[in-house]
Design brief:
The complex is a heterodimer. Chain A has helices spanning about 25-40, 45-65, 75-85, 85-115, 120-135, 140-150, 155-165, 175-200, 205-210, 215-245, 250-255, 265-270, 280-315. Chain A is mostly helical. Helices cover about 75% and strands about 0% of the residues of chain B. Classes of the chains: A mainly alpha, B mainly alpha.
């Protein structure tokens, strides 16, 4: 297996200033505080910056989404985002887009990952390095690259027109245009995520199925897929959450247009255009909280599947 | 296996074409003279490259992105290394908390994170002057990019047996700080390098944080790119030049990582910690 067991850190070594016996009780309380500080001190800058700020920002967003014009509590921003048709459509489209992208990844990406894992060592290393490039080629640059490829005067559009005489009729700014664009960088991400799981499959299992008179179909149906399913499912959940939170790619493509909008681009509309109405910042916060809640739920689901996955790994070892 | 090797190469080949086409198209656009209604451009020129890379607005955006990414790497290293080291030698719970924190950027989409930080800074009198400042952008980049530093460094620390190393150093009378700098860091150089490169690349290409926090007053390269792409009277070839530039940078980065990270174990999905059997 490529997944190596790491050196497990040993039991907690409480080498802080331990309370010597025989001291009066108040002192023991003080020394235990000092022990806690000694145990956590070097991590405090990290905890404040990476954890504290993120959590505080999340909580503050929740508060803002319930804020009225006078600073009191109100449900108005939430009512507004669900009442507005464009925003409601954006929610449906966002969820549909993420589910589509994640499902294509699950169906196609799993097969691709299996084939990549079957390459020789050198080929696999090269493939991984290239996939890493593709997975990180998101954001503004990818939007530009896709416009030059599938935009109205993009390379592929021109090529098809020149060779076959009629236009491809593919609209990059439509739902499916976004799906193709997302797949460019999210499919490699999915493959990189599930690739290590492929090494769980043992060649002996396939031999055993053959010895029992089974076919490839039986092997995948009864052995391969059941073993891999938690890994693939957790990949689906992460890809879903990741697609849902994308902002730079759709915003660069769609900009201020509201005909094909997503939750994130609506959020951008509320933030950047002054014509959004009086409580646009509160509505932006409500949309942000909505995104946060869905992503957090996805993450909890992912942790649940991941725990089962670890148990399976231990079992397969 | 030859029967199965054919669909394998067809599949991987098709995918390769899908991944290569946009790069080829961008490359062609960045060197095309005129390109209208035909499969290939009429002629080729390098003038877009020289022009765009000399344009003051582009150069400034490039500089801004570069220092922003560099500062982010430094801050991330300064906060992650001591915490992780302490997690290995004294308090394993720190590592568990760190792994959990590293999942937060998945639960908090970048644009949400950016808006949250901005609102948070605007909420109190004390921090209000910084509400739209580059400092806040650095904080945002640190908060979203640190997992890319944490994962490889954590792997390297585990592989190097940091606990045993520092026990040995301690027995020889070294202080924790000098153990960190003179024993631990030299042993995990590859992990640090990989993490630093990944963090740099993430921060360099990040759009939403700078855009949401500063509007367009702090124009990083991605902010310029999106503005230029949406500007209908803009220069599409110049836009392609900078997209190609970013891609090449990313390519070099990945080659570097592949070279430094040779022989390191693959990691599973983020947040799955092998060493802790819970």
């Amino acid at each position: 297996m490529t997944v190596t067991t790491r050196e497990a850190p040993g039991p907690v070594a409480c080498t802080g200033s331990g309370a010597p016996p025989g001291r009066p009780a108040p002192w023991r309380w003080l020394t235990s505080v000092r022990t806690v500080i000694a145990q956590w001190a070097p991590a405090i800058p990290f905890l404040v910056t990476a954890g504290g700020v993120l959590i505080a920002a999340g909580i503050w967003l929740i508060r803002t989404s319930f804020a009225g014009p006078d600073g009191g509590w109100t449900l108005q921003p939430w009512r507004d985002i669900f009442a507005q048709q464009i925003t409601r459509e954006a929610m449906v489209r966002s969820l549909g887009l993420s589910a589509t992208v994640a499902t294509v990844c699950l169906a196609v990406g799993s097969v691709l990952a299996y084939h990549v894992s079957g390459l020789a060592r050198r080929g696999r290393a090269t493939a991984q390095a290239l996939l890493n490039v593709a997975a990180n080629f998101g954001g503004a640059s990818l939007a530009i690259a896709m416009v030059s490829t599938l935009g109205a005067v993009g390379f592929v559009q021109l090529l098809v027109q020149d060779w076959f005489g009629h236009s491809l009729g593919f609209d990059l700014y439509s739902f499916w245009g976004l799906v193709v664009t997302y797949l460019y960088f999210i499919l490699p991400l999915y493959v990189l995520l599930v690739l290590p799981a492929m090494s769980v499959l043992r060649p002996e299992w396939w031999e055993a199925v053959q010895a029992a008179g089974g076919t490839r179909w039986h092997y995948w149906r009864r052995v391969g897929l059941p073993v891999l399913s938690p890994f693939l499912l957790s990949g689906w959940v992460l890809t879903f959450a990741w697609s849902l939170g994308q902002f730079s790619v759709p915003y660069a493509l769609l900009g201020e247009t509201t005909t094909t909008s997503l939750i994130t681009t609506r959020l951008g509309n509320f933030l950047f255009s002054a014509t959004g109405g009086t409580n646009r910042f509160e509505r932006a916060a409500a949309l942000a909280v909505l995104l946060m809640v869905i992503s957090a739920l996805a993450l909890v689901l992912y942790r649940l599947i991941a725990t089962r996955m670890l148990a399976r790994l231990e079992g397969a070892r | 296996m030859t029967g199965r090797a054919v669909p394998r190469w067809t599949l991987l080949g098709l995918w390769g074409v899908f991944l290569a086409l946009p790069v080829v198209a961008t490359m062609l656009y960045s060197v095309a003279t005129v390109w209208r209604g035909q499969a290939l451009p009429d002629g080729f020129t390098l003038s877009w490259w020289t022009q765009t890379l000399r344009e003051p607005r582009v150069v400034e955006a490039l500089m801004r992105s570069t220092w922003l990414a560099a500062v982010t790497v430094l801050v991330v290293a300064a906060i992650v290394l001591p915490a992780l080291y302490w997690g290995y030698i004294r308090n394993p719970r720190i590592r568990v908390v760190m792994q959990l924190c590293a999942l937060l950027p998945f639960a908090l989409p970048f644009v949400v994170l950016a808006y949250g930080i901005k609102r948070l800074a605007g909420a109190s009198e004390l921090t209000q002057p910084w509400e739209a400042s580059p400092l806040l952008v650095v904080l945002g980049h640190v908060a979203l990019a640190f997992p890319f530093f944490l994962w490889p460094v954590d792997g390297a620390m585990a592989a190097a047996g940091v606990r045993q190393l520092s026990e040995a150093a301690e027995t020889s009378g070294a202080s924790p700080l000098s153990t960190l700098f003179r024993v631990v860091i030299p042993n995990i150089r590859t992990g640090i390098l990989t993490g630093a490169i990944l963090t740099f690349a993430t921060s360099f290409g990040e759009y939403s944080i700078a855009r949401v926090i500063t509007g367009s007053s702090f124009e990083t390269l991605p902010v310029w790119q999106v503005a230029a792409l949406q500007d209908t009277r803009g220069n599409p070839n110049g836009v392609a030049v900078m997209a190609m530039f970013t891609f090449l940078l990313l390519f070099v980065v990945s080659v570097l990582i592949a070279r430094t990270g040779r022989g390191e174990p693959l990691r599973l999905l983020p947040g799955i910690d092998h060493s802790n059997k819970r």
